[in-house]
Design goal:
By secondary structure, the chain is α/β, with parallel strands linked by helices. The chain is built from 9 helices and 12 strands.
């Protein structure tokens, strides 16, 4: 419980840190292309006492998915968006992307049924260090546990869920803020560090689940100016930020970088959240 509370307190710092670290040229919606709203969820728990900025009840997710469907939106997977950007496929008229960060065990408990009920799909971005910890030591408490490698294989078995890379060990706010460089670190030193962590996560997922993610979700949305360039060189096709905006994408692979996302707190009704974000 204390670990979960501490983690939530760290997450609460994210908004302040993102605002302070965001470059003057933070991604803005382009005039051309189609809008792609992206909703960012985290932990899913039934206990209303735990509901908060990063914890939401499954009933609220069900309400969100129903709202989107009733308003003509179609959930899409990153692979579909990437294919569109490459000119290999079309997207439905009102695409929306559903994402879950961190890889909580409670995602496995609720997501498959919630998505199946609305014929929806989602991306779940994994922090490898958390997954390894709970794979090594069984502690399946849905209040704070993360999925194991075997859980991730189960989660993706029906094709409704794709996995993203959320770093192996960078989901911390300390001397290094997320995936950003530390003071005095050279470009070469940072590149080596970031590449090693990113590839470690890729290799773990490939080994355990035969999956190599094409999407990178920046821890805390903190983005080093060289981050996207390095990820492209590593073969990624999309990155996700925490900028609260609706990005516009086009049939240009470069339109899929540092996409904006709206954090979904659990204390807003579906209607109020969608109105606030302009998803109507």
């Amino acid at each position: 419980m204390l670990r979960f509370i501490s983690y939530c307190l760290l997450l609460t710092l994210t908004v302040t840190v993102v605002l302070l670290s965001a470059p003057a040229s933070a991604p803005a919606a382009a005039e051309s292309g189609i809008p792609l709203p992206v909703i960012m969820y985290h932990s899913v728990l039934r206990d209303p006492a735990r509901t908060g900025k990063y914890v939401i009840k499954p009933e609220t997710i069900a309400s969100d998915l129903s709202y989107l469907k009733q308003h003509g939106y179609t959930t899409v997977l990153p692979s579909q968006v990437i294919a569109y950007a490459k000119g290999e496929a079309e997207l439905p008229p009102k695409p929306v992307m559903i994402t879950f960060d961190d890889g909580y065990l409670n995602n496995l408990l609720y997501l498959p049924d919630l998505l199946a009920q609305q014929d929806a799909c989602a991306l779940v971005s994994i922090v490898g260090g958390y997954t390894q910890r709970f794979s090594d030591t069984a502690d399946p408490n849905p209040n704070y546990a993360h999925m194991t490698w075997d859980d991730l294989c189960t989660l993706t078995s029906d094709g409704r869920i794709e996995l993203g890379n959320h770093s192996y060990g960078l989901h911390e706010l300390g001397a290094r803020m997320g995936s950003m460089r530390i003071k005095g670190e050279t470009d070469a030193q940072y590149r080596t560090f970031f590449v090693n962590d990113t590839q470690k996560m890729q290799e773990k997922l490939l080994t355990h689940c035969n999956i190599a993610p094409s999407v990178y979700a920046y821890p805390y949305g903190l983005i080093d100016p060289t981050g996207d360039t390095i990820l492209r060189e590593l073969g990624f096709s999309m990155s996700l930020s925490c900028y609260e905006l609706t990005s516009r994408i086009s049939q240009d692979p470069l339109s899929l970088w540092s996409l904006g996302r709206y954090n979904r707190p659990g204390d807003l009704t579906t209607e109020n959240f969608m109105k606030k974000t302009g998803i109507q």
